[in-house]
Write a structure and sequence with these properties.
- By secondary structure, the protein is of the alpha+beta class.
- The protein has helices at about 85-135, 165-170, 220-240, 310-330, and strands at about 175-180, 185-195, 200-210, 250-255, 260-270, 275-285, 290-300.
- About 30% of the residues lie in helices and about 20% in strands.
- The longest helix has about 50 residues, at about 85-135.
- It is rod-shaped, with a radius of gyration of 70 Å.
Length: about 325
């Protein structure tokens, strides 16, 4: 058998399927069909317009247009009746991402809280230390507000101290007594003899002073208060207040009686014409925080008398000594 191949071209037989060397009239409805073997293929006039450089304008650009950048579309939620297959995975990823972000935010918040909390605590501690170091020491009051050791809380009953012998000798008779007051820190008793020609009065007073910060001098202790009062009474004996119903006194210090003692002699004249004359001798004694006052007076006019100043002074001094002895027997602050 011979090899099969293309049958030989027969140009003289029109209508054959082979290629013809003779050019045919190109179709008016399409591009011309050229054969590379045709003799007319070498002529530029026979070339189609698109084969000639600059023959026609291309109807399409010479290169592909650049594609616009891809736009990432947000995942649309799958319909309720057709859930997307990757929706659970996406939800898990979003949930995990949100959880990590929330945890990071919490950690940052905790760090900020710890940092600022520590700073605030440090500031408070430093401020407290500064205040403690710069705080001035408590100023101790110079005044004493309580009874001190050796001072007296109470005084004895003045009516029970003076002996009957002292009363009889000082008052020149049998006295009658009355007591206007008797308290723990103050006691007073008055003895009188009213039998013509004798009219005499004895007064015995005991007073234990307490601390008083209002005292102008001293530290305000009970003893300082008693000393201040003693001084005031001495000044009133020497120079009585204006319009006072008592004359100036002759003041004489007494040694060896308590811690401070004096004797004051006064002469009272009451009335006009023939005035009533009364002599009075007062002995004032201070012992620690207690003041002792013993006075004896006698009327020496109007049918009463006579009475000497020395007798009155002896009676006042004897009474003051007995009062002082009774005070010293009282218990003191330990």
């Amino acid at each position: 058998m011979t090899e099969q191949g293309y049958p030989p071209r027969r140009p003289d037989q029109p209508g054959r399927t082979g290629r013809l060397r003779t050019s045919q009239e190109p179709s008016r409805t399409g591009w011309q069909t050229l054969d590379a073997f045709d003799s007319g293929a070498q002529s530029d006039t026979d070339l189609p317009p698109w084969a000639v450089p600059g023959g026609i304008e291309p109807i399409r650009p010479g290169r592909w247009a650049a594609r616009p950048p891809a736009v990432e579309l947000a995942d649309e939620p799958a319909p309720a009746d057709e859930p997307a297959a990757d929706q659970p995975v996406r939800r898990r990823r979003l949930s995990a991402g949100h959880t990590r972000l929330a945890a990071a935010r919490r950690r940052r918040s905790q760090r900020r809280l710890v940092t600022w909390g520590g700073v605030a605590a440090g500031i408070v501690v430093i401020a407290g230390i500064i205040l403690y170091l710069t705080q001035p020491a408590a100023v101790r009051s110079p005044f004493v507000t309580t009874l001190q050791k050796g001072e007296f809380r109470t005084v004895p009953n003045a009516c029970r101290v003076v002996s009957a012998a002292t009363l009889s000798q000082s008052l020149a008779g049998t006295p009658k007594s009355f007591q206007p007051y008797n308290f723990a820190t103050q006691s007073e008793c008055t003895f009188t003899v009213d039998a013509k020609p004798t009219f005499r009065v004895m007064n015995a007073t005991l007073q234990a002073y307490l601390p008083a910060a209002y005292i102008a001098s001293g530290n305000g202790s009970a003893t300082a208060t008693a000393a201040y009062t003693y001084y005031q009474q001495r000044q009133q004996f020497i120079k009585p207040p204006k319009h006072a119903a008592q004359p100036p006194a002759t003041v004489t210090p007494i040694a060896g009686l308590g811690q401070q003692a004096l004797s004051a002699v006064q002469v009272f004249r009451v009335g006009t014409g023939t005035p009533t004359v009364t002599d009075r001798v007062t002995v004032l004694v201070r012992y620690r925080n207690v003041l002792i006052t013993a006075s004896v007076e006698a009327q020496v006019s109007g049918g009463f008398g006579p009475a000497s100043i020395s007798d009155l002074q002896a009676g006042a001094l004897a009474t003051a000594r007995q009062l002082l002895a009774a005070v010293m027997a009282e218990p003191t602050v330990s």
